[in-house]
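Q: Structure tokens for this one, please.
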Amino acid sequence: MKINLPKKEKISAKAVIIYTSSIITCVIAIIIIGLSIYYGSDELDRLITIGGSSLTKKDEEYQLLESNFDNLFQNHLEEYNTDIYIKKIDGAQDLVYTYYTKDENKKNSYDMNLNIPYINIDNETIATYNEEIKQTYEEKSEEILQTENENIIYTLQYEATIENDILSLIIKVNLKEGANAQRLIIQTFNYDLRNHKEITLEEFLNLKQLNLVEVQNKIDEEIQIEYKRVEDLRSLGYKIFERNPENDMYKIKNSQEFFVKDGNIYIIYAYGNEELTTEMDLVII
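A: Here is the predicted structure, written as tokens:
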């Protein structure tokens, strides 16, 4: 009797891929659990991100930073550590201090609350910053004081930090003149104390060893989200400042306003700098 033994069933390529993937996934899971126990979950999060710094912050953390943006402005220089010798103009003052304050109101004419900063460093570049601040904000207040019955609201706050030997100063202004729409103005100054020069966003990102492509993608993603939100509101009949995601203003090399605090980089697109609007987009790295 001829006996036909059953042939060995041939395993399909698809099955091999599935089995292999399952084994690899299990191995990775075991490794991650082991590392998590050894390093702790927070340290592990840091280790598995590119360059030890994640561009994708946790949603809750990101939302908290966004919602607390207005709370950054305390009109002073945060405590700092640096081994660099910095020549002050006024030895009795901090490196950044409030040199001009104004808290006045006149019915139907103006309501002002100003804390204008001064950078207390003996340097030509810093001198141009201080002169620009004076001409832009102090002279505006003196002009407003001469007005009558124009219903002007003018407030100014600032905050300053020194991190990685970079002095970062941010100024926030709210300005409403008569029947005109209110403006939100954000201006920043970033100065490299070690190399005695202004530092751009691109230079700072390189200093922090961040991937420029990833940062640009993050900016583009956030602007697209805001663009979609605005378009949805416009379709409902709301009048909101219109963005153009294709505008070159969102390129890193053209992004001028940024502020550094607690290791976070706030990239700011304040449309009120040029237009009559309080609309602003904020990207946090």
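A few notes: The mean pLDDT is 86. The chain has one domain: 59-284.
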